[in-house]
Amino acid sequence: MTAPRRLAGARLAALVLALAGAAPARAAAPPPAAAPAAASPDPAAPRAGLGGDAALGTRKYADYEKPAACASCHVDIARQHEQAMMSQSYTHAWDEIEYFELAVPHAAKNPKVAGVKAGCNGCHAPIAFLAGDVPPPRPEKGSRANEGVSCDVCHTIVGRTGDPSVNFNWISEPGRVKQGTRGDATSPYHTVKANPFLKTAEFCGTCHNEQNPWGVFVKSTQLEWKAGPHGKAGIVCQDCHMPPAPGRAARQGPERLDVRQHLFHGAHDPGKLAGVAEVRIHPEAREAEPGDPLRFTATVVNAKAGHKIPSGSAEERVLWLHVEAKDSKGRSWHLPVSRKGFPGEAFTISDPAALAYQDIGDIQGLTGFKGLARDGAVPAGDRIFRLPYFDEQGRMTIAQWNTASLGTDYRLAPLSAVNETYALTLPDDAAPGPLTVTATLWYSRLVSSVAEFMKVPAEEYAPVLVNSHQTTVTVLP
Ligand code: HEC
Ligand code: HEC
Ligand code: HEC
Ligand code: HEC
Ligand code: HEC
Q: CA–CA distance from 44 to each of 41, 119, 161, 397, 441 (Å)?
């Protein structure tokens, strides 16, 4: 169920331009208001000036209302949105660091990736992108780029310009009309248009699928969803990330049974990660004597996400399974995962000696930079559920825009289980009694070596406990 990594022919070229920029024809493309308001995907629709790309510099900041203007009536929704990453997509520390210290300098150095200087903001600071403010001021300047994915960004999206949804190929028509989904809502402040597009996963996919200047899909959350059981069952992103609850959508609005909660929480919420994947471990035999070969199988299930775990920014996430045995006297042994032998497996087993991310040195012009620990602080021999991203020279990278190819996809697919085996020869001095074996699943949003090198605040990469399970074997005297 791997998402398509490449699109054929003209469409690929056009999509890549959408992010890579620099196409002279683009300047002549019509502003998005003149583009067809395609509410449903139509692959045959005219592709001129693909979506967000054509929109660069076609609007003014003033065309979009501030979230504060909506907050006076939509109180709860506004408070929820303030706490979601959506409103922090331009301001939070790691975003600022990666954009200003890696992407912008790289864009200045390498024409191949020059388009990211503007393109990152098509999703992270859409109104700055629309206003042609490239690069936008740093967050500390307090400019309107800081609004990130604001109310008026989403509620003025009328459709998209192509299929699939990718690289901010939404069409934005700001103004008095707010796009909603109900059809019976009336507001003293704005007009409302019922737009079925907002109910689709493809709406979210306009920013949650990304194809980079190399043509590689470096984010495929909506494509993963579509290929998986939730996509097939029609359970959309909104159902999990904006679930309905009884209440009022606006201070002056009626009581409704199903007001969409603007929670949008994901990997930044330890509570969302807790239990998101389940772990069970069992031994092959219940009793053992010193010197016996012990074998354990751990089963890991992506029980709750509608896409892979990790999804989205998979280049920087690490999800790993750690297994330890402890005897009745408290002596413990770490069990490395047994190899399965699939191609590319080496990237899924933690190796403290492996170096990667050398492109950071190229981008920052560091001489003698050997790279950083590929797996950060993940203990040696632990299984890592990940999708490795490689630069043109085949080195692992966290720079998704600098990714020329992807490795073996060893992430957790929705509603699927994966088995990992562990072997231990029971040491001669293992104490008689119960031997407890614990499998623990950990998640970190950014590989720690990169985080430390780039001075990313600790809370952005601190390991989060996802789940854990224990089993026992009786050690006979
Ligand atoms: C003066 C009060 C007021 C302000 C300010 C206001 N709204 Fe509304 N809005 C309402 C009311 C009332 C409704 C109807 C609620 C209902 O029927 O449940 C509404 C409904 C909506 C809907 C739902 C439409 C649907 O059919 O699902 C959206 C979307 C919306 N507003 C967006 C915005 C945005 C974006 C802003 C800021 C740019 C904003 N509103 C500012 C009062 C306001
Ligand atoms: C069945 C419920 C469900 C559906 C459907 C679903 N999600 Fe999620 N999503 C989750 C859960 C649970 C998590 C937390 C686990 C994680 O971070 O991977 C999550 C995490 C995320 C994350 C953070 C991923 C990461 O690893 O950084 C993003 C982004 C996201 N979802 C977007 C979407 C989009 C876009 C869609 C629709 C295409 C969608 N989700 C559909 C449940 C769902
Ligand atoms: C990432 C895009 C996004 C952002 C940001 C966003 N919304 Fe929404 N909003 C939606 C979608 C999608 C729906 C409709 C969900 C559905 O019906 O399936 C919605 C629904 C609504 C509704 C109708 C709720 C209901 O069920 O009656 C209101 C009102 C609203 N949004 C206001 C706001 C305000 C105010 C903000 C900013 C504080 C905001 N939205 C930010 C995407 C967004
Ligand atoms: C205009 C672009 C845009 C649209 C449309 C959009 N998103 Fe996002 N979303 C983002 C960006 C950018 C981030 C990353 C914020 C960050 O971490 O910097 C994000 C982050 C998220 C997260 C991750 C939060 C976390 O804790 O890691 C979830 C969940 C999410 N979006 C769900 C949705 C859903 C559901 C929809 C559709 C209803 C949607 N998004 C539509 C741009 C968008
Ligand atoms: C097509 C839309 C899109 C483009 C273009 C884009 N991003 Fe993102 N970015 C997202 C979304 C959506 C997420 C959230 C995914 C998730 O939670 O896993 C995200 C997440 C991130 C994160 C991780 C935030 C965190 O704390 O986990 C960083 C950093 C980031 N983007 C930087 C960039 C940079 C730098 C660029 C340009 C080179 C860029 N993005 C281009 C949509 C985009």
A: 9, 25, 10, 36, 45
